[in-house]
Amino acid sequence: MEIDILTLIPGAFQGVFSESILGNALKQGILKVNLISFREYGEGKHRVVDDAAFGGGPGMILKPGPLTTAIRDIRNTGKAAPIVGLTPQGVKLTQNLLREMSHMPRIVLVCGRYEGFDERIRREFDLEISLGDYVLSGGEIAAMVFVDAMARLLPGTVGDKASVEQDSFYDGPLDHPQYTRPSEWEGLSTPQVLAEGNHSKISNWRKAQGLLKTAVRRPDLFCRLNLGGKEKEHLRDCLVE
Ligand code: ADE
User: Fold this and answer.
1) Which of 36, 67, 94, 219 is found 20 to 30 A from 124 (Cα to Cα)?
2) pLDDT tens digits along 34-92
3) Is 82 exposed, middle or buried (0-12, 13-18, 19+ CB in 10 A)?
4) What is the bridge-based pairing of β-strands 188-189 and 184-185?
């Protein structure tokens, strides 16, 4: 997959994109990211991209001209791609949305800054995505979140595919509790079933614990789960124990 990121601060991405799982995915070429500064499209000697709001009000607004020209340039080169604006007004980023988009060969992310976009820029967007109901200083952190979560879904990024499939939200419920050594720590012991080596029992226990956790912590998610007979059985067994 190829992701183009239009931003005023390409330097902000360097650290995040050079480390760990995401850094490896980029080095291996599983994912290619192009950082494009739309400052280059700014007007005049000072490359101006923003201006005061018509009608008054605090903060600066991204002018329609520079960003629209940048988006159109990108749209007209390379593979076809949806243009995605990162804004607090967008649809919420979810694992399902990421999964649907993970089959696309190319995605263009547009990061806003200042108090927002001139409304006329919005017609260039095929989709607007929000991280949640709060306001960030710009779309850069949202773009990093999008790229990181997307990279995990691309074959080869995470060595063990099962590890991605068991992530919270991949198939609905939250992830089950995880434990590692030592088995006794500060008076707390790890569940006996994990030490017994019975893989089918462990798998059933994990499924039930994931469901239980979802019911307690995220009843909204739990209500939307389509539980099959087997899952109800695991849940019942674990509640009886
Ligand atoms: N830019 C500013 N706030 C944002 C949010 N909540 N999500 C995505 N992009 C943003």
Assistant:
1) 94
2) 999 999 999 999 999 999 999 999 999 999 999 999 999 999 999 999 999 999 999 99
3) middle
4) antiparallel
Write the residue with the smallest CA distance to atom 5 of ligand 1.
88
Ligand 1 pocket test: which of 86, 89, 141 has the largest number of ligand atoms within 8 Å of its C-beta?
86
Structure confidence by residue, pLDDT tens digits, 208-222? 999 999 999 999 999
CATH 1.10.1270.20 fits 166-240, yes or no: yes
Render 200-235 in DSSP notation, one character per residue.
Answer: HHHHHHHHHHHHHHHHHH-HHHHHH----HHHHHHH
Name the residue with the closest Cα to ligand 1, atom 10.
87
Question: Atom 2 of ligand 1 has which residue's CA nearest to it?
Answer: 136
Domain boundaries, the chain: 2-153, 166-240
What are the pocket residues of ligand 1 if the criterion is a CB atom closer than 6 Å to any ligand atom?
86-88, 112, 130-132, 134-136, 139, 142
Q: What is the pTM of this model?
A: 0.91
Q: What residues are annotated to the active site?
A: 88, 115, 152, 167
Per-residue confidence at 171, pLDDT binned at 50, 70, 90? low
* Kind plus residue range of the DSSP H or E element containing 3: strand 2-7
Tens digits of per-residue pLDDT, 76-133?
Answer: 999 999 999 999 999 999 999 999 999 999 999 999 988 899 999 999 999 999 999 9
